[in-house]
Design goal:
heterodimer; A: 465 residues; mainly alpha; two-stranded antiparallel ribbon; B: 333 residues; Formate dehydrogenase/DMSO reductase fold; 13 helices; globular; binds CIS-heme D hydroxychlorin gamma-spirolactone; binds protoporphyrin IX containing FE; metal-binding (chain A); cell membrane (chain A); membrane (chain A)
């Protein structure tokens, strides 16, 4: 079999970026949650909030550390595997990606240390301020990166001169047509991630009858967040989709599995899209529903994949199913938010074992939804790297061979597998230690220890303490 | 386009400064990893790791800042170096990841400690070698056509780059050893005193090889150094003088001077290298002006850098200040 550097590079990028994405999406939401806990503690003086904050800061520290390590690899991927693309877009992507890194460093230098290690050394107000700044900073970071991505989806404000894009309007280039939707959708995804992980972990502690009152409070906050955010996310997701329909109709056609432009298009609940035959097998559908969702008219016209040549279509199977996974997760979240409300009205959301067990499982759902969402967005853009302007084949590094790409692909998989299984293993230990361990006074020898994110956590790698 | 001032030159200065900061600062902590397998026992290793634990990640900041700055200010460098050094870049990143994780976990490990020792040593050595090979590849130049790299996957791997790679491994080990002299006492310090002169000798041999070899392969370098009297000869002379001070201060068992003089040795060698290649940024075809991005893009990012670099510098200075004085073994529990 011929090794195709293009295919391998795409797999490699997808692997690395998916790996990275799960960490920041969690830290962004968690940072805000911690800021809220600190604010509650500052205002009420109730020690419960501080107990919770101490625990979740440790979790934050470990996840943040892993996010940084995996992010560094990505900033080099552009040059190694997509050098034509990197070179052509450097006038825009260069400064924007640099600003993302700068934001992260600024944060780390100025506020992260205070948040992680400063609790007993600075006044409580200063500590709260640091928490708020870290939370704000994670959003500024995602502003830059999502702006970069949105430009690739809906390019604007650029002009091509001699093979290089030049920025003619920074405002247009930074705030392209899909940016606002993507930012809102992503922000909600981060909050949902934090809410569901906090809910799942608290539910688990409650089932184990540990620190009941503290964990009940955390669970209560998380459920309120879920109740507001989950339906809102479905709403924003719908707007996002409508915007995509306007700018990238073929992506939406792939999401719907719609091969022919036509009126009164059904919504497919299940299907096996077959790209070679340009049709679906085993369709299960709701008549006219897709037309209604996309055009708000039961007989509206929905664009189909037949509008472009087969080689200009995105991989339909992947986009179709990734979209369904995301939406299914979103609807499950709504379901749980309603279930939680019903139980709360009856006054026993922390007593229903099946609900608590369900929440434990649901703590994984936002990660599936986020990854599936990114796969829809990125794969649905194919064959374009910059929509309508540059294809993957034009952007890939010309000197790259299949062998090189395969070597590094395997390499990254091995490195990440080793390093991150250690990281996840450690994270699970921090969870197991729980609120109790995070609040145990510990004789830390101040002098020599690194002020690294991980050192904010006190679990040891082996054994039970 | 008309430019009110020469931003490209300013950016060249910023990048050169960033690279120098990186080499000096990450150099001594990579050096601990390189020397790790040679340490007599676990006690020495504890001291070595503790001597850089609070500062190493701040040191690595400069690499990421430099990488991001390159894409923004000199995209051609980014788009030629990374494809040309593809495998090397992977090794560098993998090495840095392993040693970074070892910092986090070695302190928390008991039975698996030896694994993290190897991760730290292996990762540091591979990363240092890869960086040295990058320097060698830069001196060699790249095969380019129409602003694209057109060479093969392993063009960068030549006897010459192997020598520069090993040279930087030795150089970082020297920085590491002299740093350890400054930060430790007792048996650890004595051990470092013994190592340093040998490392210095290795470094000098490699420098000599490079200095003799380079003018032969590169007519530009030959022209620059050997056509009549040139003021740049002061740089290698200063480098040699620094080497002499390293040597004599080691003999007198001074504590701070060996490290300072080693930094001087690196600084003047680095400036000499820049002087050889100026103004070529992607040798042999493209100068820094060919490699530069658009004026507006350089300006847009400059504002951010001017804001952040002073903060990073202040934070760095503060970390080192808090951390001043000798390090003890006192491990973590
Ligand atoms: C600045 C640009 C940028 C940003 C912010 C992202 N990506 Fe991306 N992505 C690309 C730029 C890009 C790319 C360079 O354009 C790729 C490489 C090859 C390709 O298909 O497009 C790509 C491909 C790509 C693919 C493979 C698509 C395919 O097979 O066609 C996936 C699954 C993802 N990305 C997933 C993600 C995730 C999970 C992200 C969130 C963290 C993400 N991307 C952010
Ligand atoms: C191709 C895409 C991306 C690249 C090249 C990239 C690059 C980076 C880099 C280099 C870092 C480490 C900075 C440091 O050393 O402190 C980082 C961290 C971070 N990234 Fe990304 N990133 C990408 C995608 C994303 C996305 C999609 C988001 C969120 C929406 C995001 C949010 C963050 C945040 C918040 C951090 C701080 C560390 C953390 O919270 O884990 N990044 N990224
Ligand atoms: C039923 C509800 C949902 C709908 C209708 C929906 C809709 C969409 C659409 C249409 C896109 C692709 C936009 C484009 O590529 O142009 C998208 C992307 C995405 N979705 Fe959803 N979504 C829903 C639920 C969720 C949930 C619950 C999460 C995570 C918690 C999530 C996370 C994402 C992410 C991370 C992306 C990629 C980034 C972006 O383009 O915004 N989505 N969503």
């Amino acid at each position: 079999m011929e090794l195709d550097p293009l295919v391998l590079s795409r797999i490699q990028f997808a692997f690395v970026v998916c790996f990275h994405a799960i960490f920041p999406v969690f830290t962004i939401g968690l940072a805000s949650f911690i800021a809220v806990l600190e604010a509650l503690s500052f205002k009420t003086g109730n020690p419960v909030w501080q107990k919770l904050s101490k625990f979740w800061i440790q979790v934050f520290a470990v996840v943040f550390g892993m996010g940084v390590v995996s992010g560094i690899v990505m900033s080099f991927q552009f040059g190694t595997n997509w050098s034509n693309f990197a070179y052509a877009t450097a006038n825009f992507l260069g400064p924007v990606l640099s600003y993302e890194v700068i934001t992260a460093f600024f944060l780390e230098a100025a506020f992260l240390g205070v948040l992680l290690f400063g609790r007993d050394k600075v006044p409580q107000g200063v500590h709260l301020f640091a928490a708020i700044m870290v939370a704000t900073g994670t959003f500024i970071s995602s502003f830059w990166i999502l702006s970069a991505n949105s430009l690739m989806q809906t390019p604007d404000g650029l002009e091509l001169r001699n093979g290089m894009y030049h920025v003619v309007s920074w405002a247009d280039a930074l705030f392209t047509a899909s940016f606002a939707y993507r930012f809102a959708h992503m922000a909600l995804a981060s909050f949902l991630t934090a809410a569901l992980v906090v809910a799942g972990v608290s539910a688990w502690f409650i089932l184990q009858k540990r620190e009941f009152e503290t964990n009940r409070k955390a669970l209560s906050i998380a459920l309120w967040m879920l109740l507001i955010l989950a339906p809102l996310q479905v709403f924003i997701g719908d707007l996002h989709g409508l915007n995509t329909l306007k700018h990238q109709p073929m992506k939406v056609a792939a999401m719907e599995g719609n091969w022919q432009t036509s009126n009164g298009v059904p919504l497919l609940l299940f299907a096996i899209p077959d790209q070679d035959a340009q049709t679906n097998h085993f369709e299960v559908k709701v008549p006219n529903m897709a037309s209604y969702v996309l055009t708000h008219d039961w007989n509206g016209e929905v664009p189909g994949l037949n509008e472009v040549a087969p080689e200009m279509q995105p991989p339909v199977f992947i986009v179709f199913w990734a979209f369904r996974v995301m939406v299914a997760m979103g609807l499950l979240m709504v379901l749980f938010s309603i279930w939680g409300l019903v139980l709360r009205v009856k006054g026993k959301y922390y007593q229903s074992t099946s609900f608590l067990q369900g929440l434990r499982l649901m703590s994984l759902s936002p990660f599936f939804a986020v990854l599936a969402g990114w796969v829809v967005t990125e794969t649905g853009r194919a064959p374009w790297l910059i929509y309508g302007q540059m294809t993957h084949a034009q952007g890939v590094t010309p000197s790259l061979t299949g062998g090189m790409a395969l070597f590094t692909l395997i390499g990254y998989i091995v490195v990440y597998a080793l390093v991150f299984s250690a990281g996840v293993y450690y994270l699970l230990k921090v969870f197991r230690g729980g609120i109790e361990k995070a609040n145990r006074p510990h004789e830390q020898d101040e002098v020599e220890r690194a002020k690294r994110p991980f050192s904010a956590a006190h679990a040891s790698l082996e054994g039970d303490n | 386009m008309e430019q009110p001032f020469d931003l490209t030159l300013i950016w060249a200065g910023i990048i050169a400064f960033g690279v120098m900061m990186y080499v000096l600062m990450d150099g001594f902590d990579l050096g601990q990893g390189i020397l790790f397998p040679f340490a007599p026992d676990e006690h020495h290793r504890d001291v070595m790791m503790n001597s850089v634990a609070p500062v190493w990640d701040g040191n690595e900041t400069w690499l990421v800042l430099g990488g991001a700055g390159l894409l923004a200010a000199f995209p051609l460098v980014y788009a030629v170096f990374l494809p040309a050094l593809y495998i090397g870049v992977f090794l560098l990143l993998a090495g840095l990841i392993f040693r970074g994780v070892a910092f986090e976990f070695r302190f928390k490990a008991k039975t698996s400690k030896y694994l993290w020792n190897w991760a730290f040593a292996g990762g540091s050595t591979v990363a240092a070698f890869a960086q040295g090979a990058v320097v060698g590849a830069y001196i060699q130049g790249f095969k380019t056509e129409n602003f694209r790299y057109v060479g093969g996957a392993l063009d960068w791997l030549t006897p010459f780059t192997v020598i520069t790679g090993l040279g930087l491994v030795a150089g970082y080990a020297l920085l590491g050893a002299t740093w350890l002299i400054m930060k430790s006492e007792g048996s650890v310090q004595q051990w470092a005193y013994k190592l340093a002169p040998r490392l210095l000798l290795m470094v000098l041999v490699v420098f000599a090889v490079i200095s003799v070899y380079t003018p032969f392969v590169d007519p530009l370098v030959k022209e620059r150094w050997f056509s009549g009297f040139s003021a740049i000869w002061i740089l290698p002379l200063l480098a040699l003088y620094c080497a002499y001070i390293v040597f004599s201060s080691l003999r007198k068992q001074q504590e701070g001077m060996p490290f300072v003089a080693t930094m001087g040795l690196f600084l003047f060698t680095y400036l000499g290298l820049l002087a050889s290649k100026w103004p070529y940024m992607v040798p042999p075809n493209y100068t820094l002006y060919d490699a530069a991005s658009a004026f507006e893009s350089q300006l847009f990012l400059l504002l951010g850098f001017l804001f952040v670099i002073p903060i990073v510098l202040t934070y760095t200075a503060w970390t080192y200040w808090v951390f001043r004085g000798k390090v003890k073994a006192g491990g973590y529990h």
